[in-house]
Amino acid sequence: MRVFLIVWFGQLISLIGSGLTNFALGVWVYQRTGSVTQFSLILLFGLLPSIVVSPIAGAMVDRWNRRWCMILSDSGAGVTTVAIALLLVAGNLQLWHIYLAVGLSSVFKAFQLPAYTASTSLLVPKEQLPRANGMVQSAQACAQLLSPLLAGVLLGIIQLEGVILVDFATFLFALTTLLLVRFPDTKTDVVPKEEKTSLWQEAMEGSTYIFGCPGLLALLIVFALDNFVAGTVEALLTPLVLSFTSVTVLGTIQSMGGAGMLIGSVAISIWGGTKPLIRGIFAFDILAHLCILALGWRTDATLFSLAMFLFFFSVPIINSSVFTILLRKVPPAIQGRVFATMQALALSCIPLAYVIAGPLADRIFEPLMAADGLLAGSIGQILGVGPGRGIGLLFITMEIIAILVTVSIYRYPRLWFIERELPDVI
C-alpha cells in the first residue's frame, strides 16, 4: 500500500493541475470567441483521440513496463502544457494550437489510464482493491470539485500563464513520485515466442476476452448505458437549470454534484463495497437513474441539488466496484488491453450523447412541451409547459427506458453471478 499511496498522491496533484488548465483554457476560448461551439470542440478533442487510440494503447501497456508507461505519458502531457505556455507568452496562441494540445493530451491519457488502473492489482492486496479503487475515484472527485474553484481564483491573480505554470509543476511532482518508486514485476508476455502476433492482433485481444465472457460483456453494456445517460445530462443540464433559475444557482447545483462524488469516493474507500460487489453496483445504478428521472419532474433548485448530490455520490461507488471486479477476474497480463477496450467502448457513448441530445431537445421534445405544443394539454398539465419542460420530458423518457434495460440486464445470471462463476486471478 505504501507504493500505491505515493503514486496515488502524485496522480491526485497532477489531476488537480490538469483540471486548472482545462478550466482556464475553456474560459480563454469562450471569452475570445463567444462561441459555444468552439468551447464544445475542446471537450470533443479531449475525448475522441483517447477513444480511437485506446485499443492500441492497451496492447502497448501490456507489452511495456507499466510504471514507465505512466512516466512517459505524464511527460508527454507536461510537454504539451509547456508548448501552450510558450505560445501564449509569445502572443502566438491560436485556437487550433489548443485543439492540437488537448488532442495530444488525450492520446497520452489513453496510455496513462490503463497503465494506472492495471498497476493497482500489482501494488494492492486483493482484499484492499475496493478501497484502492475508491481512492482513485476520490482523486478524480477532488479534481472535479477543487480545480474550477482554484482556477477561478488563480486566473484573477496570476492569469492564464501562471495557471499553466502551476499545472506544469504538478506534472513534475507526479513524475517525481513515479521515479522514486518501483512496481513489482509481472509476466506480460502471454504469447509464446514462436507464435508472436502483431500489435493490432494483440489490441483486439481485449475485445475478444470481453466478448468471450458473457458476464463481462453484460457489465460493459451497463457501463456504456450509464455513460450515455451521463453524457446526455452533461449536455442538457445547463440549459435545463437556466430555464428556471440563475447562473449562481447552477454553480451551486454543480458544486453539490462534486461534493457528492467526493463523499461517495471516501465512503467506498472506507467501506469497501457490498459483498458481492454486483449487488452494490445494481443498487446504486438504479439510484443514479432515479436521480436523473427526478430532474424531469419539477423545476426546483433544492430537488436538483439533492438529485445531483446522490447521482454523483453513486458514480464512484459504481466505478470502483466495476474496476475491482475487473482487477480480480482479468489476468494481469492482459489487463491493459481489457481496460483500454472497456474505456474506448464505454466512453464512445458520451460523444454519441452529445450529438443526439441537442437535436432531440430542440427539435422534438421542447416543441412538444411548448405552451401551444402537442402535449401541452396532456403531459404538460403534469410536468408544466414552457422552456426546459421538453428537456424534463426527455430525461423522464430516457430514464424509464434506461431503468427497464438495466433491470433486464441484471436479471441475466451470467452478470448477477459473475463474481461466483469467474475465478479470481490474484
Automatic annotation (TrEMBL):
Chief location bin: membrane
One Pfam family per UniProt: MFS_1
Coiled coil: none
Chain ranges of the Major facilitator superfamily (MFS) profile domain: 1-187
Keywords: Cell membrane, Membrane, Transmembrane, Transmembrane helix, Transport
Subcellular location: Cell membrane
Topological category with respect to the lipid bilayer: Multi-pass membrane protein
Cross-referenced InterPro entries: MFS (IPR011701), MFS_dom (IPR020846), MFS_trans_sf (IPR036259)
TM region positions: 39-61, 164-185, 206-225, 245-270, 277-297, 303-326, 338-357, 391-410
Name recorded for this polypeptide: MFS transporter
Organism: Laspinema palackyanum D2a
The organism's taxonomic lineage, starting at the top: Bacteria, Bacillati, Cyanobacteriota, Cyanophyceae, Oscillatoriophycideae
